[in-house]
Design a protein that fits this description.
- The chain has 437 residues and is mainly beta.
- It is built from three helices and 27 strands.
- Strands 14, 15, 16, 17, 18, 20, 21, 22, 23 and 26 form a ten-stranded antiparallel β-sheet that branches. Strands 3-2-7-6-27 form a five-stranded antiparallel β-sheet, with no helix packed on it.
């Protein structure tokens, strides 16, 4: 009997530990809750809505309302060409509620006590988060107040439109002529260090007019128009339009690029619509997309095809040369106190395009345009075999993560394929555990 009691107590301890605590690999996950999933709160003013996590007490956590206009486009309220919702500042069915999964807490009814909901709550929705990999759970509470809701003072991101720099918890990212040209580690005092990145090199080579003319283009041929931006506690959204000069009076179609920058990662998707299949005018298309780092000597490189790592030391040994012949859609650079992980995604319409890693190390090799000679390292992708791409809409995205050094890269990648599950439940206030009435 005593053994059974001990076993039951152990089970309860394990269940208790799993409650309100998601795995460490979920540290960067941002929950995007469609407002249509909580219809009882639709029509609520943003000022009256709060997001809370409960443990010994129920406290406000950082959250963000991202509105969509009537066409479904995200509303960016700052910049030269902002757009607006109608009405603004009210939760509509097509809006998004965002918060960090790592801020979620315990289920209110399971907390001994339990703690009271804040005074002034007139409606509540419980959101349960479940990790499909571990079956762990955590909860947050969306609360509507009769008056203004309490707010967390924490903002995880910030944007300086003058310098065009965005900063999160571990890195700061900056743009020049529409492409990334600044990447710095953020210190414990919250300030960004020296620039580690020369630039993102985007080099295209092709033959034009059925092979009669060869030409190359670089990131300096990209023309940009800054459109708008928005900053909240959870993410910064930066919108621009781009096109590429091809010469002879030709240019590419204008395509859109919205950068989404979060506390621990950045999503840089590019969408474009081709009016004709590229192979009708161009042949032998090759595109290189490379991050040209200034000096990461002492860092290590990890890629999908190898279990071990390679050290950045300026020596192009056989193992490094082999990287440029290996397929892959991610790579990681591990440095002092951080791992930088880059993952490439493409639309199904680009599935026939071949992707290979591209890797170079040199302190002196010249590959203009660039600010400084050399690449220490230069790492990215080569994209070939565009002959089966048709006209229509296409997209590709670069997702860059700043991981804590102790986190296993492959474990983190596994979470990206198995996002958290959500379940919403209206909480009756008259019977809610710990309700303040």
């Amino acid at each position: 009997m005593r053994a059974a009691s001990v076993a039951l107590f152990a089970v309860l301890l394990v269940a208790r530990a799993a409650s309100g605590e998601l795995p460490a690999a979920r540290f960067a996950e941002v929950v995007r809750l469609e407002a249509s999933a909580v219809p009882s709160l639709c029509g609520t003013s943003e000022a009256q809505l709060g997001v809370f996590a409960c443990r010994s007490t129920c406290e406000a956590i950082p959250w963000q309302l991202d509105e969509r206009d009537a066409s479904g486009r995200l509303v960016l309220d700052q910049g030269p060409e902002p757009n607006a919702d109608d009405p603004p500042g009210v939760l509509d069915g097509n809006d998004l509620i965002l918060f960090m999964a790592s801020d979620a807490g315990e289920q209110l009814e399971s907390i001994p006590g339990p703690p009271a909901l804040p005074v002034g709550v007139v409606a509540a929705v419980e959101v349960e988060l479940t990790d499909p990999r571990t079956a762990r759970h955590a909860w947050v509470y969306l609360l509507r107040f009769a008056d203004n809701a309490p707010r967390s003072p924490i903002s995880y991101v910030r944007y300086d439109p003058v310098s065009d720099h965005i900063q999160g918890a571990r890195v700061a990212l900056g743009f020049g002529r529409g492409t990334p040209r600044f990447l710095a580690l953020v210190g414990g005092d919250g300030t960004a260090g020296e620039n580690l990145l020369d630039r993102m090199k985007i080099r295209a080579r092709a033959r034009f007019l059925w092979g009669l003319i060869s030409f190359t283009r670089s990131e300096d041929d990209v023309q940009t128009r800054f459109v708008a931006w928005r900053q909240g506690p959870i993410r910064v959204i930066r919108r621009q339009q781009l096109w590429v000069r091809l010469g002879w009076g030709f240019r590419t179609p204008i395509f859109g690029s919205d950068t989404y920058f979060y506390r621990d990662w950045a999503d840089l998707p590019v969408t474009l619509r081709l009016n004709f299949a590229p192979h009708l005018l161009f042949t032998d298309i090759t595109i290189h997309a490379v991050l040209d780092f200034r000096d990461l000597r002492g860092w290590t490189v990890q890629t999908p095809g190898r279990r071990g790592v390679l050290r950045v030391d300026g020596k192009m040994v056989a193992e490094k040369l082999a990287l440029s012949r290996s397929p892959g859609d991610w790579f990681a650079l591990r440095g002092p106190g951080i791992t930088l992980l880059e993952v490439m995604q493409v639309s199904p319409s680009l599935s026939t395009v071949k992707r290979h890693l591209l890797y170079r190390e040199s302190t002196a090799a010249v590959d203009p345009p660039e600010s400084e000679p050399g690449e220490m390292p230069g790492i990215g992708y080569t994209l070939t075999k565009w002959d089966k791409v048709e006209s229509g809409a296409h997209w590709f995205a670069s997702n860059s993560y700043a991981l804590p050094p102790e986190l296993d890269v492959r474990e983190f990648l596994d979470t990206l394929t198995q996002p958290l599950r959500m379940a919403e439940r209206v909480l009756p206030l008259d019977s809610a555990p710990g309700s303040s009435g």
